[in-house]
Amino acid sequence: MSNPSKTKKHNRINTKTKTKSNKGNLCHHLVAAANNFPNNLAVSVQKKDLKGLTYEELTFVELHQQSDDIAYALNQFGIKAGDKAVLMVTPSIAFFNLTFALFKAGIVPILVDPGMGVKNLKQCFEESQPDVFIGIPKAHLARLLFAWGKKTIKHIINVNGPALFGGQQLSRLLKKYPRTKPYLIQQLSQHQLAAILFTSGSTGTPKGVVYSHSMFEAQITVLKNDYGIQMGEADLATFPLFSLFGPALGMASIVPDMDASQPIKANPHYIFAAINKYQCTNLFANPALLEVLGQAGQKEKHTLPSLKRVISAGAPATLSSINRFSKMLTGTAEVINSYGATESLPISKIGSQQLLNTTNITDQGGGICVGSAIENVDIAIIKITEKDIKHWHDDLLLPTFEIGEIVVKGPQVSASYYHRDQATAQAKIKEGNSVRHRMGDLGYLDDKGKLWMCGRKAHQVQSNHLNVDKPYYSIPCERIFNTHKMLKRSALVSVNINGKTTPALCIEIEKSKKVDQQKLFDELLDIANQHQQTQGIALFYIHQEFPMDIRHNAKIFREKLAVWAQAQV
Predict the structure, then answer these.
(1) pTM (predicted TM-score)
(2) Domain interval for residue 205
(3) 60 to 64, 105, 202, 229, 284: CA distances (angstroms)
(4) Is residue 413 within 8 Å of residue 17, measured between CB atoms?
(5) 131 CB neighbour count, 10 Å cutoff
(6) Residue 352 covered by a domain
(7) Segments in the chain below pLDDT 70
(8) Are the CB atoms for 74 and 173 separated by under 8 Å?
């Protein structure tokens, strides 16, 4: 937000980057762990069966040897370095073995979120043009039904089941091609394609993010240095991709029995049991899971004394969820909120103790504080525009406290999307040999260098109704209205009235509360008039239940609400 009384300091944070070797493979971390502490636990996968909760375990040396076996068998089967492989396997021992095998062999894994829907999945496979499809029987059935990758897939491999839908069983390949000597890991140049990770599509069309081994290395370095994760720790990993970092850090990955694409349905008792059994020191949890665990912990007065830190990412968690969950932690442990995206993660972070002290600013429309930049990351704020920006220059920078688009640069920032030249042009800015990524989020930097989030660029409402020509930003506006005790949540949208763009607020009421609609609307109008950020908002629509993304349960589908609100006008 513009504040002319503040110093016009450039809206940018910068630290020096470190040089890296030209060739490598992130699997060298696994090799080192297998050599240095071979019998330490690397992976444990929890399962609920008739016997109760059971655990399948793998040591570092077993993970190293078994992934070597698979890499060798894949090569003998005809799959070579540079080939692209769809991997649709549930979090399991096989998932870890296969993923590390693909990386060792230089085969490019294509990782997608099954929760993104059939239509989006088909588009992902058409764009990424996979050579190989590795999956469980359910995934192969879907592959046939929806013709996923039909034009390009040459090799089909079945995991954890018979080859009912064509192809070869992984277990048979391992018997047919037994490895007799150490596997030679592929060495790749630092910017060579190592993986394609598709965005969830919850805020737009899914896009394949090009990952290199140097990007993964940068993320591993961040987890060591900025988050203080050390060898020998145990991580309760609730997101498949993050769980892979455990073995690379010399940390055991404990995978609970839950659907990672729908964490809101997770059984908190399973997670508490796994944390207790392995005395987990780290927990990765998105906002939906934080809420589920916090509710259960509050109800049962449960504590999690072994945890040193909780890392939350994916979407901004509510302050109430963080506060509730934090009561289960002891000592100096806190929730670390991480900001970033598939294209650039993490970018900044803030601990819950510091975050909870910003409640008043957030409630007054100051946005959500997402903390200070990670080491080696440059955060800049530029003027809001829909135009492509080909080359970076410092004239693009906005002053502190002025809202604009968040732009980031760092070793963990992707340089392009896979086979999406237009999307790459829209999101990337060249600066010499490096690339800056436009986050598509709006925010500002304060005079202490902290980043404040103000919502998605696409969710800004540029009003021109009743001589009110001003922008409205989703997070500042919604957080002001959400202070009303009747509201569960709200969503800023635009409606068209007589050809004029008009801001409107969709609201969801707490189910347990009875509402006097006119009284509520009068009170919301009074709140709107008290704040510069919300003055001019006078249309309110009650919606029974907001459409939300299933993974985070924090991202509101405002585009759907806007269509609904227009029909109410």
Answers:
(1) 0.92
(2) 21-241
(3) 6, 18, 35, 17, 21
(4) no
(5) 21
(6) no
(7) 1-21, 201-204, 552-553
(8) yes
